[in-house]
Amino acid sequence: MVTMTKPLTVYKASAGSGKTFTLATEYISLLVENPLSYKNTLAVTFTNKATEEMKMRILSQLYGIWQQLPDSQGYLEAVARKTKLEPALISQQAGIALQHLLGNYNYFRVETID
Description:
The chain is mainly alpha-helical. 54% of the residues lie in helices and 7% in strands.
């Protein structure tokens, strides 16, 4: 049996520096590349409020990217830069990922350290 591990990524920054945007973009990028990656992804925050904000941000931006809403353009552009995928494919994958997340919400892991 071969076990593959992926690198751990840690973001440490002060308030108002864009951590939520960065973390949500990273999570969405993983989902766009593989809509089932939520099963193997854990995002960790420091407060329950940040956990809920992160989950809602990911879900709302997946929806916005899928529906090509203007408010999600910044996320779409960031995901496109990171993944090197075309916006149309990102949009399609975002819709698929959103459906998977909503159908398997208990596997959508954004948690606190407490």
